Amino acid sequence: MERAPRPYLRWFELKACRLSAMQASGVDPRDVAWEREQPVYRVYFWGHPRHASDEWRITDAGSVQEVLAWAQARSGRHRTCQVWAEARNEQGLGLLLLSGHNDPTDGSECR
C-alpha cells in the first residue's frame, strides 16, 4: 500500500523546483573494495556575471560538514559553489559531486 507524501517533502520538492527520482535500497557493506576516512575535497566557487571560477583543494578536513561550512562561509552573496570529493579509478583522478548543481551558473547557493 502506497502512502501519500508528507507535506514537508512536497514543500522541499517545490522549493528545489524539481521532483526527485531518488531511490533508496538496502546494501551489503561487504561489497566495498576500499574506503578512505579522510577524503580529499575540492571546492569550486563560481562568480557572476562572467562565470569565473576559483578552485580550492581541501585536505585533512574533520568531516564533510566542515568542508560545506567552510565553502558556504566563503561563497558570499555573489558566488555559488560546488563541493566535490576526489576519487581515483583505472582511468585516473575523478570527482564526485557532493553539493551544488552540475550547472554552477544556475544561481544556486552552496549547501
Q: Mind telling me the C-alpha Rg?
A: 17 Å
Distance between the termini: 34 Å
Strand content: 25-35%
Give the % helix: 10-25%
SSE-based structural type: alpha+beta
Low-confidence spans: 6-16
SSE order: HEEHEE
Shape: globular
Give a count of the beta strands, DSSP E runs of length 2 or more: 4
Q: Specify the number of helices.
A: 2
How would you describe the overall organization of this protein?
This protein is an alpha+beta fold and 111 residues long. The chain has a domain at 38-111. The protein is 19% helix and 29% strand. The protein is built from two helices and four strands, in the order αββαββ. It has helices at residues 7-15, 64-75; strands at residues 41-47, 53-58, 79-89, 92-99. It has a four-stranded antiparallel sheet, covered by helices on one side. The longest helix is centred in the middle third of the chain and has 12 residues, at 64-75. The termini are far apart. The model is unreliable at 6-16 (pLDDT under 50).
Quick overview of this protein structure:
The protein is of the alpha+beta class.
Supply the key terms.
111 residues, alpha+beta, 2 helices, 4 strands
Write the layout of secondary structure elements.
Elements lengths: L6 H9 L25 E7 L5 E6 L5 H12 L3 E11 L2 E8 L12
